[in-house]
Write a structure and sequence with these properties.
The protein is α+β, with helices and mostly antiparallel strands and 196 residues long. Helix content is 20%, strand content 44%. It is built from two helices and seven strands. Strand 2 and strand 3 form a beta hairpin. The longest helix is centred in the first third of the chain and has 35 residues. It starts with a helix and ends with a strand.
């Protein structure tokens, strides 16, 4: 009997430690979920792997081009119809990874220059547009506060990723081209704050 008791005690300690670890993770996950549910409006940015851990001190540059043409479907209350639009956009962005509180973080900045031409019918009259302008730049801070330690590239090579939980704040600054007398604008003339 004396040999069984210590083993039984160790098993209980092991179960207690596992339960305590799971309970801590559960409380953390519940806190994050409640923080997300309390806000009034929700949105999702569909950028794959945006919270993946990356080594600190990395720099990324993005250059891109997009072309779109065709009919635009305005909202039902808009006084325009038969909208045809051609859009050309050049996109540029920069990102830098760093440590914030010992965890992996990233800041990225993006802006694009848009040229568009098209036509629509407004109050029975055909109107046309042909102009270019810069969009409002966006700045985003991403912080992986759980499961993503800040690692150098050498340390990162031998690290195995598990569950990562993070958050981000994106701010869009209204300095893009905007003219209140125009129906189409590259800028939006408003601040936008997005928290994920």
């Amino acid at each position: 009997m004396s040999f069984i008791a210590p083993e039984h005690i160790y098993q209980n300690l092991s179960i207690t430690r596992s339960f305590s670890f799971l309970r801590t993770r559960g409380v953390l996950l519940l806190t994050v979920c409640l923080a997300q549910c309390v806000t009034g409006a929700q949105a999702q940015d569909l950028e794959p792997r945006s919270y993946t851990n990356i080594p600190i001190g990395m720099n990324f540059m993005l250059l891109g081009y997009a072309h779109s043409q065709g009919e635009v479907s305005p909202s039902p209350g808009a006084p325009v119809e038969n909208v045809q639009l051609n859009i050309d956009a050049a996109v540029s962005g920069y990102a830098h990874s760093f440590s914030l509180g010992g965890r992996s973080s990233k800041i990225d900045i993006g802006v694009s220059r848009v040229c568009f031409d098209g036509s629509a019918i407004l109050a029975g009259e055909t109107i046309t547009a042909d102009r270019c302008g810069y969009t409002d730049p966006s700045i985003r801070l991403t912080w992986n506060f759980f499961g993503a330690p800040a690692l150098s590239p050498k340390e990162f090579a031998s690290w195995d990723q598990g569950v990562v939980i993070g958050t981000s704040l994106q701010v869009t600054v209204p300095i893009g081209r905007y003219d209140e007398k125009r129906l189409l604008n590259a800028g939006t003339n408003r601040w936008v704050f997005v928290r994920e």
